């Protein structure tokens, strides 16, 4: 074991939406910051996702197996790299709705209230949108929460086929809105280009170590402070000392790290006095659906449409159903490559030409519904393995959303102007367990130490120098895409840490 002889003011573990953003905002403090990332920089070409090989070979699976609750193995679709999952995400950067912060009755249970409200997050959403260069249009979505500022950039225009669909949807009385997307000169903005790279380039006080997998948190003898972080770099094991430790490994890996670091003082895992670490894992119900057309599109374009007409329900089903967005060009969408039964088996054996033909004659749709926090849906760490005990819930709401959307698309297909769309062919598939894209909730924040893991500053209730600043803190998942809320929260916690660091 090699013990590093410096003590850092802050050690941040993970460089995704949470960690990368936090590093950038803390960099200007001049404090000595160490950032530890288990992955490497992705080569630019492989992060652009514009190649049929991405689609075909199920790239972007972590090089490790996880286990479901029955002990079946799977390779999680998650990116261990500088920038984390924002290197493979679609860049849809949505605010949660105002009501998502309140207790909401769903058909199958209750989505809990957040201890902070939309108004507390609003300034940070604006800051996040400016930082990640979000393109959008205020006022065209009936569920949109109030905003203190317009989007920093104009919306991304729809691909012509998608524009036609939007016109037909509007004629049905629906409200297709522009999907907010983070876009910069290099394509989608991510936590490498927007977070980590500016942090290390502009500031000598920030050190990034890549291929540095954190495997343990070492407490002091009382168990009330983290003294050191144990890290595997290549074949060697290091100890790094820090005054403040921030976990930002993503909701599953941060929980796993707390659980695996158990010691005499914390036999069930660090900061896990109430047994809540790892519990209430959420990842939303997700379905991908294809609308087939008789003429080709490029297969390479940004997501641009957001439909929230069913978000809070309708007269026939007065419970939240969820959110719909188009997939963007299907050849760019890594999640589509995972979704049976549409493509997964067929595409692995299809020649590239046929696959491209199929993909470019399709518009993909992406449906997501809030899943409710359940204590039994959890991350477990046993015998050096990560288990996800997870069962989807709130399924009828998702089925109803799917049914509503199929009916809406059938009308689009029937509409005289839309003759380019094949009639009523809408194959769809729900995403399997390895799609952990929207994971959240394993260390929820709250005021009560008995019912939450983190306090309102995302510091663990019991360990004064330990924070978790990734999607773990969510008390509920909402049906929106999570990254903007993770980014906004990191900016919020950064303000707290800046004050604390003096
Ligand atoms: C294919 C895909 C598409 C998506 N599309 C969207 C979208 O369009 N919009 C949206 O809002 N969200 C989207 N998401 C989700 C979004 O990417 C996540 O919500 C967001 O990245 C979560 O941020 P995070 O900081 O919690 O974790 P991550 O971004 O996952 O970052 C975690 C980081 O920690 C590192 N790490 C993990 N364990 C360790 C360890 N032990 N030691 C050191 N480092 C470690 C990882 O390598 C990674 O860099 C998508 C996700 C995927 C996978």
TrEMBL record:
<dbReference type="InterPro" id="IPR000172">
    <property type="entry name" value="GMC_OxRdtase_N"/>
</dbReference>
<dbReference type="Pfam" id="PF00732">
    <property type="entry name" value="GMC_oxred_N"/>
</dbReference>
<dbReference type="GO" id="GO:0050660">
    <property type="term" value="F:flavin adenine dinucleotide binding"/>
</dbReference>
<feature type="domain" description="Glucose-methanol-choline oxidoreductase N-terminal">
    <location>
        <begin position="11"/>
        <end position="283"/>
    </location>
</feature>
<comment type="similarity">
    <text>Belongs to the GMC oxidoreductase family.</text>
</comment>
<dbReference type="GO" id="GO:0016614">
    <property type="term" value="F:oxidoreductase activity, acting on CH-OH group of donors"/>
</dbReference>
<protein>
    <submittedName>
        <fullName>GMC family oxidoreductase</fullName>
    </submittedName>
</protein>
<dbReference type="InterPro" id="IPR051473">
    <property type="entry name" value="P2Ox-like"/>
</dbReference>
<dbReference type="InterPro" id="IPR007867">
    <property type="entry name" value="GMC_OxRtase_C"/>
</dbReference>
<feature type="domain" description="Glucose-methanol-choline oxidoreductase C-terminal">
    <location>
        <begin position="428"/>
        <end position="490"/>
    </location>
</feature>
<keyword id="KW-0560">Oxidoreductase</keyword>
<dbReference type="InterPro" id="IPR036188">
    <property type="entry name" value="FAD/NAD-bd_sf"/>
</dbReference>
<keyword id="KW-0285">Flavoprotein</keyword>
<dbReference type="Pfam" id="PF05199">
    <property type="entry name" value="GMC_oxred_C"/>
</dbReference>
<keyword id="KW-0274">FAD</keyword>
């Amino acid at each position: 074991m090699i013990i590093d002889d410096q003590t850092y003011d802050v050690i941040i573990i993970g460089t995704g939406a949470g960690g990368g953003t936090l590093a950038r905002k803390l960099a200007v403090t001049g404090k000595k910051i160490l950032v530890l990332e288990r992955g490497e920089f992705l080569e630019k070409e492989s992060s652009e996702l514009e190649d049929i090989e991405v689609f075909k070979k199920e790239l972007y699976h972590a090089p490790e197996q996880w286990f479901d609750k029955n002990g079946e193995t799977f390779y999680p679709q998650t990116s261990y790299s500088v920038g984390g999952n924002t290197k493979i995400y679609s860049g849809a950067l949505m605010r949660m709705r105002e009501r998502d912060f309140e207790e909401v009755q769903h058909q199958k249970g209750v989505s809990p209230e957040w201890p902070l409200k939309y108004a507390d997050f609003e300034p940070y959403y604006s800051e996040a949108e400016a930082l990640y260069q979000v393109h959008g249009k205020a006022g065209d979505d009936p569920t949109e929460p109030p905003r203190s500022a317009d989007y920093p950039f104009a919306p991304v225009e729809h691909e012509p086929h998608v524009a036609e669909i939007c016109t037909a949807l509007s004629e049905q009385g629906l409200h297709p809105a522009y999907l907010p997307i983070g876009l910069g000169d290099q394509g989608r903005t991510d936590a490498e280009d927007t977070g980590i790279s500016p942090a290390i380039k502009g500031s000598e006080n920030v050190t990034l170590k890549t291929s540095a997998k954190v495997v343990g948190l070492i407490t002091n003898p009382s168990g009330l402070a983290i003294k050191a972080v144990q890290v595997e770099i290549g074949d060697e094991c290091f100890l790094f000392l820090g005054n403040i430790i921030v976990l930002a490994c993503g909701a599953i890996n941060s929980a796993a790290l707390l659980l695996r670091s158990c010691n005499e003082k914390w036999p069930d895992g660090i900061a896990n006095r109430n047994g809540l670490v790892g519990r209430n894992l959420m990842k939303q119900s997700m379905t991908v659906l294809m609308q087939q057309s008789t003429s080709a599109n490029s297969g390479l374009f940004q997501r641009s449409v957001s439909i929230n007409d069913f978000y809070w329900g309708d007269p026939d089903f007065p419970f939240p159903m969820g959110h719909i967005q188009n997939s963007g060009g299907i050849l760019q969408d890594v999640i589509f490559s995972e979704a049976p039964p549409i493509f997964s088996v067929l595409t692995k054996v299809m020649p590239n030409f046929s696959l491209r033909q199929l993909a470019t004659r399709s518009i993909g749709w992406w449906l997501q519904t809030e899943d409710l926090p359940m204590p039994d849906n959890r991350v477990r760490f046993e015998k050096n393995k990560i288990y996800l005990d997870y069962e989807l819930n709130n399924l009828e709401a998702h089925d109803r959303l799917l049914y509503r959307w199929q009916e809406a698309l059938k009308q689009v297909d029937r509409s005289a102007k839309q003759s380019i769309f094949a009639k009523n062919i809408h194959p769809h598939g729900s995403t399997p367990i390895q799609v952990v894209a929207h994971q959240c909730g394993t260390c929820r924040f709250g005021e009560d130490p008995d019912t939450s893991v983190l306090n309102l500053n995302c510091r663990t209730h019991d360990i004064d120098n330990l924070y978790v600043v990734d999607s773990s803190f969510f008390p509920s998942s909402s049906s929106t895409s999570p990254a903007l809320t993770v980014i906004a929260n990191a900016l919020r916690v950064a303000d707290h840490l800046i004050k604390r660091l003096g």
